[in-house]
Amino acid sequence: MSAIAEPTELVAPPPFRRDHRVHAWIGIKALSDAGDALWMIALAWTAVQIASPAVAGLIVAAGTVPRAGILLFGGVIADRADARRVMLLFNALRVGVLVAVAFWVLASPPTVVVLLCAAIAFGVCDAFYEPSAGTIARQLVRPSDLPSYGAAAQTASRLGTMGGAAIGGVLVAHAGLAGSASANALTFTLVVAFIAIWLRPRFRLARAGREPALRGIARGFAHLAENPPTRTLVLALSGLNLAVGPAVGIGLALRAHAEGWGAQAVGLFEALLGLGAALGALSVVKWRPRHEARGGFWALVVQGAAIAALGFGPAWTVAAAAFAIGATAGYASVLLSATFSATVDTAYLGRMGAITRLGDDCLMPLAMAGFGALASATALWVPFTLFGGGMMALMILPLSNAAFRTLSLRAGD
């Protein structure tokens, strides 16, 4: 296992509990996530009002394809450029897109072309923004504070998303697409202002050398091949959602339909999952394990068992399993993301993050289709058991690695 990466310290950060600038950044980012959630609801609602269900689905998913195609280039830029400047640029572009949409729909009714262009523009911005944003934690706090940072940031993000989704339906009903776009533009404007005025890196990351973008992408995959610990983390983080995504996204609805529980049961299960995820992430602040990677991987073993449990029993056991899935997902993602940020060579951090995100984007449709096909061809408990069992089996690889079992991000360990 490679040692914890120690980039050059520019300014000594205060302990995380007293780091008010980072606390403010977490709050601003959560507000932006709330804006994103209400914008996505407005986009989907407007799409179903003006287009067929198939076209509406295409509009909502339109940002995924350009994001997948450009994400690796965004990773190359993240490893060679100033992450703060990249974040400023693409947040400003997002504001421009949202303002343009608001003015357009105020002047004339929204059209499929306008919605498609907006979704694609956001996908392109995400592809460049996300890899750079993924490195910012490593530039703000010490490795020993990364789990606390991740716990607070993920909890705030989930709460922001939940709040934005709750407000989104009301806002689009009263203010339409223009009002929702304007509200999200305001949140991105606040992000731009905060980054420009207050957000300053405390650590300087190693930078990748300038070379053609395709060669930089190839070098990233070569680094992945040459570094087994990094490869294990990338595979684990890429696969975090591939078992749980189909089980929750399709499986819960199938079970509720088969048992006659109704749509309200699906909503309850989803709410319990979200609550569990927020509590799981927050629990890391108070009950952080000494060996973060080991704790995260064992949590995913428990999650695999909970995924399998979704296929059996009455509604109350499914509800309990949904809560357990959320809690383990929040807990594991904080610990493994912190381990990833602290141990990956910082000259490759953007590219490794892009590969992780790309794996999720590209493989999730296949996982969804596979789950649905199994549910159609076999008993409904079979895909839950196979996907949950697969998650548990996959964790054998990192848990059998002595370096992961003993690694600690705590200072002095």
What do you see in this structure?
This protein has two domains: 8-204, Growth Hormone, Chain: A (Up-down Bundle), CATH 1.20.1250; 227-406, Growth Hormone, Chain: A. With 413 residues, the chain is mainly α. It starts with 7 loop residues before the first strand and ends in a 7-residue tail after the last helix. The chain has helices at 20-50, 53-61, 64-80, 83-107, 112-133, 136-140, 146-197, 213-226, 228-238, 240-259, 263-286, 292-309, 315-343, 349-377, 381-394, 396-399, 402-406, and strands at residues 8-9, 203-204. The protein contains 17 helices and two strands. α2 runs parallel beside α5 and α3 (64-80) packs across α8 (213-226).
SSE layout:
Blueprint: E1 8-9, H1 20-50, H2 53-61, H3 64-80, H4 83-107, H5 112-133, H6 136-140, H7 146-197, E2 203-204, H8 213-226, H9 228-238, H10 240-259, H11 263-286, H12 292-309, H13 315-343, H14 349-377, H15 381-394, H16 396-399, H17 402-406
Antiparallel strand pairs: 1-2
Helix pairs in contact: 1-2, 1-7, 2-5, 3-5, 3-8, 3-14, 4-5, 4-7, 5-14, 7-11, 7-13, 9-13, 9-14, 10-11, 10-12, 10-13, 10-14, 10-15, 11-13, 12-13, 12-15, 14-15
